[in-house]
Amino acid sequence: MPADTLTRVFSALADPTRRDMVARLAEGDATVNQLAEPYRMSLQAVYKHLKVLEDAGVVSRPPGPQPRVVRLETEAFDEMDAWIELYRGRAEQRYRRLDALLATMAENDTTTDASTKTEKRDER
């Protein structure tokens, strides 16, 4: 997925109303009127939200007679997931290296503490 497409998808999902519409569509296809039902906004405003989601490739509205059904396009989420997984993998590698370093430091502290205690006992 090109960066500009990812930008459009993340930008489209930045709005809570659009995320809510996507959550509703995750349950199944819906007409525009069904999507508009829970909101206190004009149908024109709902269409504007859907246009943003459609331009980002998150939803589709097949051409045809009214009522038009809105459908969630899962490919956009598959591509977003792949992009996120790339960075999650990198972060996990860094955390594993940090865990290994901290474990080594803890071992050294334990060894140092034990030798310090032995030296103090020997001094008495």
Describe the structure in your own words.
The protein is mainly alpha-helical and 124 residues long. The protein folds into 2 domains: 3-72, Arc Repressor Mutant, subunit A (Orthogonal Bundle), CATH 1.10.10.10; 75-124. The protein has helices spanning 3-13, 16-26, 32-36, 43-55, 74-123, and strands at residues 30-31, 59-60, 69-72. It has a 3-stranded antiparallel β-sheet. Helix 1 (3-13) runs antiparallel to helix 4 (43-55). The longest helix has 50 residues, at 74-123. It is rod-shaped and about 95 Å long. It starts with a helix and ends with a helix.
Gist of the model:
With 124 residues, this protein is mainly α. The protein has 5 helices and 3 strands.
Indicate the multimeric state. single chain
Under the CATH scheme, which architecture of the largest domain would be assigned?
A: Orthogonal Bundle
Class by helix and strand content?
A: mainly alpha
Please describe the biggest sheet, giving its number of strands, its sense, and whether it closes into a barrel.
3 strands, antiparallel
- Tell me the CATH topology of the largest domain: Arc Repressor Mutant, subunit A
Q: Give me the strand/helix succession.
A: HHEHHEEH
β-strand amount: 5-15%
Given as residue ranges, the uncertain stretches (5+ residues, pLDDT < 50) are: none
Order of adjacent strands in the largest pleated sheet: 1-3-2
In helices, the fraction of residues equals over 70%
- CATH C-level class of the largest domain is Mainly Alpha
Number of helices: 5
| Count of domains | 2
Whole-number radius of gyration? 27 Å
CATH homologous superfamily of the largest domain - what is it?
A: Winged helix-like DNA-binding domain superfamily/Winged helix DNA-binding domain
Shape: rod-shaped
Number of strands: 3
Distance between the first and last residues' Cα: 70 Å
Average of the residue pLDDT scores: 87
